[in-house]
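Methods: example folding runs. The two proteins below were folded one after another, and each record is reproduced exactly as written to the output file, sequence line first and C-alpha cell line second.
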Amino acid sequence: MMGVIIMKKVFIGFLVGIISATALSVYADDGLEKIEAYLRPSLPITLDGKKVTLENPPVMYDGSTYLRLRDIAALTGLEVNWNDTTQTVELGKKGDSQMETTLNPSEESQKRALRLYDLRKESEKLTEQISSLYKLIEPYEVLMGSPKLKEKDDFYDKTKKERDVLIKRREEIQEEVNIILKESQAEADQEMERLRSELNKGN
C-alpha cells in the first residue's frame, strides 16, 4: 500500500541516523550542524502488518524517515538508556537484567559519518563558487532569449572551464555520498538482524 512504511525500513533508517549523529557529535570540530527537516504526522507506520500510533511524529530529512528511539522501544518492549561514559545508546529488554544490547557505532560507520560530513561541507562550498562563476559568464551567454552583452573571449573560456571542473567535482561528491549512504544502510540492516536475534534468544 502506498504511503505505508514497514517498521523494519524505518528502524533501519533510524539506526543509520543514530550511527551518523553519534559520530558527528563526538568528532566534528565545528560542533552541531543546523539542518532543515520536516514532521510528517500523517505518515502511516505498521508493525507486523498492524498500524501503530507513535507519541512523536516521523521526521523527514534528506530523503530518509527517522523515528525517536524511545518510540521504537515502546513498540518492541525495550528499554533505552544513554551511557555517558562509553557514549553509547544501550537497549535492554524490559524486566530482564540479563539481556542487554548495546548499539555502539563501529569504527567504519564513524569514518563514513565523518566523510559524509566533509563531503557535504565541500559540496556547499562548491555550490557557492559555481554560483559566483555563473554570474561572471552570464553576460557572455544568451539567457531566455535576451541578447548577450559581451563577446566570448579568453576570460569567458577560462571561467567556463573552471566552472565545469567544479560542477564535475560536485557530481563526484554526490556519487560518493550515495555510496556511503548505501553502506550505512547495509550496516544498519545487519545491526537490525543482530538485535532481532538477541531479542529472540531472550524470549
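Second run, written to the same file directly after the first:
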Amino acid sequence: MRLPTPSERADNPPEGFFTLYEGCFYFCFLWFPLPRLIVEYLWSYKIALAQISTRGLRHLIGILVRSFEADKILSLGHLRNFLEVRRSPGPLERYYISPSKNKKIIGGFPSKDEKYTDHFFFVAIDEDSVPEGCLDKIVAKWGKIDRDPTFLELVPEDLLETHEELASRKCHWTKHFRLKRVEKALRLLRGVSCSSSSSSSDHRLSGFVEMQKAKMTLREKKAAEREAAEQKRALEAIFKPLPEVTGAPEGSGRPEMSDLPEASNRPEATDDPEGSGLGLTMTSVPPEASRDVPAGASGTQVPEVESTEVVVGLAAGGQAKTKGKRPRGEHSTDKRKKSKSDHSSSRPIYKDKVASANLVASCAWPLLTAPDNLAEAGRYAETSANFLKAFSSMNTLVRYYESTNRQHKAANERFELARAESERKITEATAAREKTEALVAAEQGARQKEAEENARIRQRAEAEIERLNRLLSEEKSLREIEVARAKKAAKRAVTEEFAKQIKTIEAKLEQFDQVADRYMYFSQAKANAELIVALEEGKSIEDEKKEVEAWKEEFGTLRRSILSLRLSSSEL
C-alpha cells in the first residue's frame, strides 16, 4: 500500500496499483486478499472496486457472509442474478449496486451513505491483495461499464433455493452486521480463531490473512458437527430422562399414583388362591430406585419408574387360621389403622423383614410355619427381604426399559411424521422450483425467439432499404437520361426553328441589301445628274470637289453603322 501524492487522483491510479477507500474497511468490513467472487463479479462488468458505492459493497459482503454461514457455494451467475449495476449521476464513472426484482437479500442500510471519498490509498496488485489466479482480473483504471450480453444466460439451477436460504435470517445490515460477525463467518469458512479485541485495521487484516491460510475447510467442519449432532440425538432418543411429575412428596422425586400410566387408584382387594382360606391383601406401593441399577453408566440418569409395585401380604384375620400363630410385625397395628388413601405412601415391603418373610412363606403350598419359629428365622427374613428387593430391582429395570421403549416408539412416530412433513415440503419446493425453472426457461426461450425475430425483421428491413436505394438510383439515372434527351430534343427543335428564322432574316437582309444597292445606284445616278446640271449652270469643278469632301465627312460614319448592323444580324 502507499498513500497518494497531492497530484494523484483516485480514478487514475499509478501503474501496478488499484484504488481503495478507507470506508471499504470501516463501513463495509472488507478484507485481504479480496474475495474471489467479488473480483470476478467486478471483472464481468469491467469496472474497478473503487467505482462502486459503499452500499453496493455492503450488498456483496453481506451475501458472502450469509453464504459462509449457510454453507452455500455461490457462483458468478448467482451474484449477477441477485444484483444489478447502475450508473450514479455525476461527472465521474461511479456505480451503485441494488438487488434485482424479488431477489433482495440484504436490507436495512442507512438512508444515506457515509462520506467516504475523501480518504483513499493505492494497493499493489500482487498475491497478498488479490486471490490466486485473479491478477489479470483486477481493473485499475476507471472506465465505463461493459454489459456483455452473454452473461444473461447464466441462471444457476439452485438460484431460488439459494435466495430463500440466504434471505432467511439476520439480513438487516444496521442491526445484524458487525465486524465480529464477519470474523466469525471467516472462522467458519477456514476453521481458525481470530481475536477481534483490537481496533487496529492492521490487526484485523492480519487476522483475515491468517484465517485464509488454514487447512481445515468449512465443509469438513460442518460434516463433523452434523455427525456429532446425529449421535447426540440418537442417544437422547434412547436415554432421554422422563419429566418429573408434580404432586410427589417433597424431596422424594416419585410421581403420584394417579399420574402413573400403568396403575390406578383402585381399592385393596383380597384374593384367596386355590381355596386355601388365607386372606391375601394386594397393596399398591410406590417403588424406590434400585441400588443395583448403575446410574450414569451411559452418561444419562436413570429416571424414576412411572408405575406401582403390587405387594402381596397376609391379612390380619387370615393369619389366625394357620397352624401356629405368626407374630405380627411391629407396624401391623399402625397399618390396620391407616386408611386406604395412605397405602400409596407406604414403604416397600422388602424394607420390613418380617413382612417379607411372611410373604415368601405364603407364596407356595403347603405353607411354612411362622418364620419366627424357624431355626434360621433371621437369615430367612433377611434372605426374603433381599429376594423381594431383587424382584423390585427387576421390576424397576423392566418398567424403565418399557418407558424407554415407549418413548422411543413415540419419538419414531414423531420422526416419521416430521419426515413425512419434510418430504411433503421438499416435494412442494421441488415442484415450485421445477415450475419456476420452467417459467425461467420459457421466458428465456421467448426472449431468444423475440431476439431472433427482431434480427430477422432487421435483416429484412435492411434488405428492403438496400433494394429501395438501388431502385431509387436506377430511377434517378433513368430520369437524368430522359431529361438529357428532352434537353437535346428541345435544343434541337429550338435550333431548327431559330435556323429557319435566321434564314428568313438573311433572305430579307439580302433583299434589303439589293434594295439598298439599287437605292445607292439610284442616288449615285441622281448625284451625277445634279452634278451635270450644276456644271451646265456654270459651277466650277473645284467648288464641287470641296462640296463632295464636306459630304463625305458628314456621312462617313453611315457606312460603319451599316456594317455593324450587318455583323449583328449575322450573329443572330
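Comment on the second run: Residues 268-409 form one domain.
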